[in-house]
Structures are given as structure tokens and as C-alpha cells.
Design a protein that fits this description.
The complex is a heterodimer of chains A (102) and B (224). With 102 residues, chain A is an all-alpha fold. Chain A contains 3 helices and no strands. Chain A has one domain. Chain B has 224 residues and is mainly α. Chain B has a single domain, classed as Arp2/3 complex 21 kDa subunit ARPC3. Helix content of chain B is 72%, strand content 3%. Chain B has a two-stranded antiparallel sheet. Chain B is globular, with a radius of gyration of 17 Å. The chains are: A mainly alpha (102), B mainly alpha (224). Chain A: InterPro entries: PDGLE_dom.
């Protein structure tokens, strides 16, 4: 059994490594839905994402030309961002109001 | 399986946004009574891990890739309510920060992954767990099967949305066949990742794993 600290730091570091380093080696082929849409033809109905020009669009960092760094930075920002949002959300959800007996 | 804008008409997008909002509200209520100070951090870490692994597309067939959805995985680790919330947070981050998945289609994508993926995956896990011996070693096996089944089920859920309100006019049967066929292959990857991850967490902190705890402890005392 790992203690809490080790377990959570370990899990977070593994996530950082996967999103920051391993992601570079991910397949760039279209995913299942996209491929089906291409093969059948309804990919043509896809509109450009309203959000398409955000700085991290499609897991690349705008202004970073090196592909390894571009996806790695996007991944690390995503992991940290998700940790902050999910961490705060679940902390608030789990907070039990003090029960008052009457 | 992040749906881009434009695939579904406005009416269908609105319906599924409503359904997803209702599902998330129910999940919020469930998670509130189930999560505590000890389990909340694992729910956060689960969202983080799923975000990371969703970036890792693996090849499944010529010119096709797939990636983990993580619905079954999250449900087994932290319970289905918190899992629905964790997946929804991941989808929100992806849509807003990375333009992955259309914003108008976010409700439909959430329905397929955060609700269908989580609850069908968890249901399948429970059924398999029932059949297998009541041992720790059974949990990753049941988890893998739950993960495997959740992916074609999410694909069927997309096909239902396509049937209800696609902007394209290709036959629903064609879409159904192609979606299920492709996603059975992706489901194999989902099952493997789900099984391996659950077995790693069970090996290091079985006391935190929802899908093992609530099998193990018949009686649970909670202070409401």
C-alpha cells in the first residue's frame, strides 16, 4: 500500500508524462467517429469549431514550431488545468455541511 | 468520439444538452452523498489521468485510431456519479481549451461518453463481477469487460443521435454498422487500458477503489 502522498504524486506524474511526452507518439490517424464520417461521407457536414483559434487548438501550442514541444506543452497545460478544475470541483462537492442536531 | 459542430441539427443538439444537464445534475447529487474527504482526491486524479490518456490515440485499423473514453474506468475507481462528473470536466476542458469536439455538440458528446459510457460500462462491470469469484483479481477482469462494452454502446448512442437529427442524409443502418464495427476494435484497447489501470490502482491502494470496496463491504455506515 502506498501512502496518500506517494499515490497521488505518482498518479499526477504519470499523467504529466503521458500527456507531456508520450502524446507525441500518439497515432494521428482520424479517430473512429471521424473515420466513419469520412468513409460514409457525412464529414462534409462538420463545421469548423467555433473555438478553432484558441491558443492550444487541436493539442498544439500556438507559436511553438517544434512538434514535440508543441504537443507536450499543450498536454502539460491540459493536465494541470484539469487538476485545478477537477480538484476544486470535487473538493467542493465532497464537503459535508456540518450537521446540526435539533 | 468527440462530435464536431454541424453533424447534428439544432433540435437534436438542444435535446441532448438538456438530457446531459439533467444527467449531470443527478450525478452531482449522487456524488455529493458518496464522496468524502478521502475519496474526492481520487476523483480529481481520475479526471486528470483520463485527460492524459485520451490524448494517446492508438492505431486500430488501416488509417483509423481510437483513444480511451474512460467512462467505465472512472466509474470503477470512484463510482458512477463522480465518474459522470469527471468525464464531463474532461470534455469541457477539451472543448474549451483545445477545440476538441464542437461546442454546440458538447451536450451530445457528454451524453455518449459521460452518461452512456459511464453507466453502461459500470452496469456491465457489475454483471461480470457478480459471475466471477469474489476476489481482488476478478475486479480488473470485470473492469476490462465493462470498458470494452462501453465503447460500442457509446457508438450506438451517437448513431441514435444521428438517426434523430443528422444534417446529412446517409442511411442510419450504414452509419450503425460502421460505427459499431470500428468501435468494437477501439473497445478492445479501452478494455485493456481499463483493466491494466484498475489492476495498478488495486495493487497500490485497493482501499480507494469503489468497484472493489462496495463489493467487499456489505454494510456501510454513513453519517448523512
Amino acid at each position: 500500500m502506498l501512502n496518500n502522498r506517494r499515490f497521488y504524486i505518482g498518479g499526477f506524474v504519470v499523467s504529466l508524462f503521458l500527456a507531456g511526452v508520450v502524446s507525441f507518439y500518439a497515432s494521428s490517424s482520424p479517430d473512429g467517429l471521424e473515420k466513419v464520417a469520412e468513409d460514409i461521407g457525412f464529414i462534409e457536414t462538420a463545421k469548423e469549431n467555433t473555438n478553432a483559434d484558441v491558443a492550444l487548438s487541436d493539442y498544439g501550442t500556438k507559436g511553438v514550431d517544434n512538434e514535440r514541444a508543441s504537443v507536450g506543452i499543450a498536454g502539460v497545460i491540459g493536465v494541470i488545468g484539469t487538476a485545478v478544475v477537477a480538484g476544486v470541483a470535487f473538493k467542493l462537492i465532497a464537503r459535508k455541511p456540518r450537521t446540526v442536531k435539533n | 468520439m468527440h462530435i464536431p459542430d454541424g453533424f447534428l441539427d439544432v433540435q437534436t443538439s438542444v435535446i441532448f444538452t438538456g438530457l446531459s444537464a439533467a444527467g449531470v445534475a443527478v450525478a452531482l447529487k449522487g456524488a455529493r452523498s458518496q464522496l468524502d474527504e478521502k475519496t474526492a482526491p481520487l476523483a480529481g486524479l481520475t479526471a486528470v489521468f483520463i485527460f492524459a490518456v485520451q490524448m494517446l490515440n492508438f492505431p486500430v485499423a488501416a488509417g483509423t485510431s481510437g483513444h480511451l473514453i474512460g467512462g467505465a474506468l472512472a466509474a470503477i475507481l470512484v463510482g458512477p456519479w463522480a465518474a459522470t462528473l469527471a468525464l464531463t470536466i474532461v470534455l469541457l476542458m477539451q472543448a474549451f481549451l483545445f477545440a476538441d469536439g464542437g461546442l454546440t455538440a458538447l451536450g451530445a458528446s457528454t451524453f455518449n461518453m459521460s452518461i452512456v459510457g459511464v453507466w453502461i460500462g459500470y452496469g456491465a462491470f457489475l454483471l461480470v463481477r457478480k459471475i466471477l469469484p469474489k476476489k481482488k483479481a476478478s475486479i480488473p477482469v470485470a473492469a476490462a469487460i465493462g470498458g470494452f462494452i462501453s465503447v460500442p454502446m457509446a457508438a450506438i448512442s451517437f448513431t441514435l443521435q444521428y438517426a434523430m437529427g443528422a444534417t446529412a442524409t446517409y442511411s442510419t443502418t450504414t452509419v450503425l454498422g460502421a460505427m459499431v464495427g470500428t468501435h468494437i476494435l477501439i473497445g478492445i484497447g479501452e478494455g485493456l487500458i481499463t483493466g491494466l489501470t484498475v489492476s495498478a490502482v488495486i495493487a497500490s491502494r485497493s482501499d480507494l477503489v469503489y468497484g472493489w470496496k462496495n463489493n467487499n463491504q456489505k454494510l456501510e455506515i454513513r453519517n448523512a
